[in-house]
Design brief:
It is a single chain. Strand 2 and strand 3 form a beta hairpin. The chain contains 1 helix and 4 strands; from the N terminus they run H-E-E-E-E. By secondary structure, the chain is mainly β. The protein is globular and about 40 Å long. It has a two-stranded antiparallel sheet.
Amino acid sequence: SEASFIDRNHLDYCYTDDQPQSWMKIDLIKYSIKPTYYSLRSDKSEHNNKLRNWRLEGSVNDVDWVTLSEHTNDNSLGEKQFSAASWSI
């Protein structure tokens, strides 16, 4: 659910299959934002399932996408349970 994806206090799992080019999307419907910072938190597992490679993208029309932040071999989400990290855009 979207709550699992965006709520910092929600403890449900939110993940894709372990496949290249997997993605998640949140439709803000009528809202428009210009993010300057974002945060991610890993799940309760240790050592496994930690996000290391991803892109944060944005779109105003759901057709044309702009890369806001790109990460390759990023170890910011540590090996501990519920590791969290933040990045500026």
